[in-house]
Amino acid sequence: MADRLLLTIPEACDRLNVGRTTLYGLISEGEVPMLKVGRKSLVPATALEAYVARMVSVLQSPTGGRAA
Length: 68
Prior knowledge:
alpha+beta, Multidrug-efflux Transporter Regulator, Chain: A, Domain 2, three-stranded antiparallel beta sheet, 3 helices
């Protein structure tokens, strides 16, 4: 699955280790994009990697993600 460009919702949930509701929340907040291809909802694998990288950089910031 690591070499696939687009993941189904269940695959994206497994990859992020989150539930379906959490993933749809991230999608609705604009944190993770979703594509519709026909009737399928697909998430770009690179979008998940970018989301995790953003979250890690926030945690590593001097304020630790909190307001200064």
